[in-house]
Design goal:
Elements lengths: L1 H5 L1 H4 L8 H7 L6 H30 L2 H16 L7 H29 L3 H31 L11 H11 L21 H21 L1 H13 L4 H20 L1 H7 L2 H21 L3 H29 L5 H29 L2 H21 L4
Helix pairs in contact: 3-4, 4-6, 4-15, 5-6, 5-8, 6-15, 7-11, 7-14, 9-14, 9-15, 11-14, 13-14, 13-16, 14-15, 15-16
């Protein structure tokens, strides 16, 4: 149940990916619609960023379950608002509240995983959490494409599904007893050792940079694919879902891979693979090459996300878990929010294929940094 509820984080954005071009067409008379329609996908991200630290504190102080349940209810109301909102700006307001509720769900579920499991257990559960999110993303993408072919507004009806999760979560999930059931004040932020705080900052920076370039795929690929070949919304959804499938499948094996490699080595391998995948996408404007690049990227991404979450969970004490995961979530979604802003500027200065090449070079550069930094 905990893993299933975690999948709401991927439902917040991926189902609307296939209908972004249609929304741009419908609201074509709105100034800067090219950017606004992409903000439909990323607006939840900035509100996840804004609310995650505050929600992390509430999770540590008042417990996880009630905040998660309240977040699910807001999630349903905000998510379905796109089905009847009258303008692109009203849709964006609904997406903002969707972001706040998503922060409550994913930070709460991650903190609960940290409460229930430690050591090898948290490696296994973080891998399963990432794979569950990935497989659900596959389903949500395809379903979003199918509903989008009926009508673009029908896609937003997918946000009715969490009503079922609300009742199941309330019935089957118990609040665990942690070593300290109320959060200390913000002064506790000064107590962890400086090495621990430096490690968190490094993890957060990795997460931020990763999402800026990773989110090029759901943001830019629907437009890129339709510019070189004729695809409907369902086909676009299936194409991006293929990457999600391979990402989720790789995450299933994260626990076994973690036994063989350190956090650092997993990042080196993953960023090299993602860089290669992006360069393949940009090399030849043919569907088969693009698909191959997405598969390679998906496999690598299946290691990076659980590696980030497991590292945070493994090095944080129970009283600090809510805030630690809140910071990680904020970093991930801050990168997601800035992705269309930064990448649109890159495309204006270069071209859409060149932007994928530059992203690949950046990821190769990140892997090089991990090759030379101290093991400590």
């Amino acid at each position: 149940m905990l893993l299933l509820t975690s999948t709401l984080v991927i439902m917040a954005d991926l189902p609307v990916v296939p209908v972004l071009p249609k929304m741009q067409e419908i609201f074509s008379d709105i100034p800067n619609i090219n950017l606004l329609v992409k903000l439909v996908l990323t607006t939840p991200a900035i509100f996840i960023v804004i609310s995650s630290p505050f929600i992390g504190y509430l999770l540590d102080k008042y417990g996880r379950k009630n905040i998660i349940l309240a977040s699910i209810l807001i999630y349903v109301l905000a998510g379905t608002s796109g089905a009847y909102a009258g303008s692109i700006y009203e849709i964006l307001i609904g997406r903002a509240f969707l972001g706040i509720s998503t922060a409550g769900v994913i930070n709460g579920c991650s903190a609960l995983v940290g409460d229930y499991y430690r050591g090898e257990g948290i490696n296994r559960m973080m891998g399963l959490q990432s794979s569950s999110i990935g497989y659900a993303g596959l389903l949500y993408l395809v379903l979003g494409g199918l509903l989008g072919d009926i009508h673009w507004r029908a896609t937003f009806l997918i946000y009715l599904l969490p009503v079922f999760l609300f009742f199941m979560f309330a019935k089957f999930i118990d609040e665990p007893i942690v070593r300290q059931n109320s959060a200390p004040g913000w002064s506790m932020l000064k107590k962890p050792e400086s090495a621990f705080l430096r490690k968190l900052v490094m993890i957060y920076l990795i997460a931020f940079g990763l999402m800026i370039f990773f989110y090029m795929l759901p943001l830019q690929l629907p437009f890129y694919l339709k510019s070189i070949i004729s695809l409907n919304n369902t086909q676009v959804g299936l194409t991006i879902a293929a990457m999600t499938f391979f990402s989720a499948t790789t995450a299933v094996f994260y626990k076994k891979i973690k036994k063989m490699f350190s956090y650092r080595h997993i990042f080196i391998i993953s960023f090299i693979a993602m860089g290669l995948g992006y360069m393949i996408i940009s090399a030849v404007p043919e569907y088969s090459y693009i698909f191959a690049g997405m598969v390679i990227t998906g496999i690598a991404m299946g290691l990076v996300i659980p590696n980030l979450r497991t590292w945070v969970g493994a090095c944080s004490e129970p009283f600090f878990l809510g805030r630690a995961f809140g910071g990680l979530t904020a970093s991930l979604y801050l990168g997601q929010f800035f992705s269309p802003i930064i990448i649109n500027q890159v495309i204006k200065l270069t071209s859409q294929p060149a932007s994928f090449t530059l992203a690949g070079m950046f990821m190769m550069g990140v892997s090089s940094v991990f090759l030379v930094i101290s093991r400590k």
